[in-house]
Write a structure and sequence with these properties.
This protein is mainly α. Helices cover 72% and strands 0% of the residues.
């Protein structure tokens, strides 16, 4: 991050930033990405449009950071249970069923928008996909170091794909929202066996 970006961001308090992000997510759920405008965000949050652009540069960056902000706090470094199964379960349990259902609906809408918006895809890669991939890499490297999985297992490169697939397919195939119970059983039945990791 550049010094300019850091200085730009520091003008808004964390509380105000959280309030803005919550308003952005509310608007996204109401109207979707394409219909969401910086004017609407400014009106909803009693902000000036100039402040929003100065702070976030544009809609794509603001939306990606709002979604990232809504993710459960903490990092993979704080989740070290001593086993890969325990770590993946702990990461999953950071969101409750209600949050998962809301996130699932939100991500379905954004997935459509990403296809037609290169700026949104770029912002999502930078603020959501890459940080989450780094988190999984940390967890997997610990499992390799503990001897739970082999470093040359080709499934390691697809853990993120498997997790997103399970999350998305729950609604598509089962017509139900993803839940903690579903994702925990999915990890045990699909992800851990693919990695050759202990499932008990």
């Amino acid at each position: 991050m550049t010094e300019v970006a850091t200085a730009r961001r520091s003008r808004i308090t964390p509380e105000r930033e959280a309030e803005l992000y919550e308003a952005v997510l509310d608007l996204l759920r109401e109207v979707g990405y394409d219909a969401l405008t910086m004017d609407a965000v400014a009106a909803r949050t009693r902000s000036s449009k100039a402040t929003l652009y100065r702070q976030w540069g544009g809609k794509a960056e603001l939306v990606a950071k709002a979604v990232r902000h809504s993710k459960p706090g903490g990092s993979a470094d704080e989740v070290d249970t001593g086993s890969l199964k325990g770590d993946l379960h702990a990461l999953t349990l950071r969101s409750d069923d209600c949050e998962m259902e809301q996130n699932s609906a939100l991500m379905r809408g954004l997935a459509m928008a990403i296809h037609g918006n290169p700026d949104l895809l770029k912002a999502f890669r930078e603020h959501l996909i890459e940080p989450e991939m780094a988190e999984f890499r940390t967890v997997l490297q610990r499992a390799i170091d503990r001897g739970e999985i082999h470093a040359d297992n080709p499934a390691i490169d697809y853990v993120m794909h498997m997790m997103i697939g399970g999350f998305a397919a729950r609604t598509l195939i089962d017509e139900q929202p993803p839940t903690q119970a579903f994702l925990l059983s999915y990890i045990d039945a699909v992800v851990l066996p693919a990695l050759g990791a202990p499932t008990h």
